[in-house]
Amino acid sequence: MSSESNIILITNNEEVIKILKPKLILLREVDNLSTSNYSDAVENIKRDMPDTIIIHGGEEKQECIDLIKLIKNDIATRHISILLVAEEYDRDFMLNAYDENIIDFVTVKSDAAEILMRTIWCLENNVLRNSFRKQYNLLKKLDVVNRETGFYTTEFCEKVFENEIQFNEKNRISAIIMEISPKEEEKLKINSRNLANAIQESVRVSDIIAHSVQNKFYILLTKTHLQGAQRVFNKIKENFGQDLLIASATNIFHKNFAIIKNELLNGLIEAQNSKQDFIFVESEPEENQGDWMEKMTSTQKNFKLFKQAFNKKLEKVITPVFFQTQKLYEDKLYKTQIEQDSNSASSYFLLKKGSDESELKITYPGFSKINIDIIHNGLDTPENKRITLDISELDESRLTQILEEFIEEFKTSTEK
């Protein structure tokens, strides 16, 4: 952020100028502060192109909202950060203003420190927005981003997603990639622009979207589980307004985009052939990675498939993690007896020390969920709790983390 910023204060109340102007000048002597009434506001904003607009909303609340709309609907001024100054807190007024994309708000009675904090945040936000716009326009010129939709182009799709996958893996951020496609028999009825609009209306700003071939789109949904991905797809179908779409989705566990792309294509083929609209694809990438995935559907409650999935988790994750953890802690926990067993009915990891006893128990109630119950018996024990996970969420790392937290709770309570 530069050392000098232009700020314009818009109000119809001279008393507000007397209250706010000294605070703003005192706080930011390097800034240029001008004032305007409502009627001349748009003209003055376009002339000065300030870094931040401070709008006072008194009795003229609707007029204030209308002015914010004018600023945000004008391509020349929509990027400028707006700080709203209200006479007092009014929930509906604030929500309406946020709907029109203000950055923050204060009240007239706010102290100087708070006005400083909110104003600087607006100035910094404006710098970030300008930087983003420059980079975004450059990506358009380089055809990395589609000029019409704003999504990444097919040519750069693989590089973009490979980078995102590596970033998420490095930072241990869970994510699901979904591919959306027209049904085979409906391809000629699809308007790609309408589909792109429906996708844009249905996802978060942080989600990554790219064009695939033949009116297909990839969407990367960070910090999203299977049910979340399916809800996004249902929202896209609702916004599109026609039941002409199918989708497949998969986790990003230890896979590059080439593998994921192939999985998603196979998922779309399965969705088309099985007359289902959403398929969740799972596969086991490497035997020694401890992560497994195998195909299953999310819309069809097929107990047999989920039971097979759980049995594989039992074999690949629960049994080895229980055994390894027992061996690791047998000599570390003083006077503590460790017992563990894993089977399809229930699996348990038991700690005993004198009259204190704690048990971690895994049960499979059916379909896609696994229950992990933690039960402590004894004096001054932590609270009992239940953790419920999707089958696909229980991997070696997650179970090890849960076990270590369970052991630490037991250790802490028994050493008091």
Provide a descriptive summary of the structure in words.
The chain has eleven helices and 16 strands. With 416 residues, the protein is an alpha/beta fold. The protein folds into three domains: 6-139, Response regulator (Rossmann fold, 3-Layer(aba) Sandwich), CATH 3.40.50.2300; 154-300, Reverse transcriptase/Diguanylate cyclase domain (Alpha-Beta Plaits); 306-414. The chain has a six-stranded mixed beta sheet with strand order 7-8-6-9-10-11, sandwiched between helices. Strands 2-1-3-4-5 form a five-stranded parallel beta sheet, with helices on both faces. A five-stranded antiparallel beta sheet has the order 12-13-14-15-16, with helices on one face. Helix 3 (61-73) links the parallel strand 3 (52-57) and strand 4. It is globular and about 75 Å long. Residues 284-301 have low confidence and may be disordered.
Compact overview of the structure:
The chain is 44% helix and 23% strand.
Strand numbers in spatial order across the main sheet: 7-8-6-9-10-11
The CATH architecture category of the largest domain equals 2-Layer Sandwich
Q: What would CATH call the homologous superfamily of the largest domain? A: Reverse transcriptase/Diguanylate cyclase domain
What is the CATH C level class of the largest domain, in words?
Answer: Alpha Beta
> Structural class, please?
alpha/beta
β-sheet strand percentage: 15-25%
- Could you tell me the CATH topology label of the largest domain: Alpha-Beta Plaits
Could you tell me the radius of gyration in angstroms? Answer: 28 Å
Helix content: 40-55%
- H-E string: EHEHEHEHEHHEHEEHEHEEHEEEEEH
Strand tally:
16
Tally of helical segments:
11
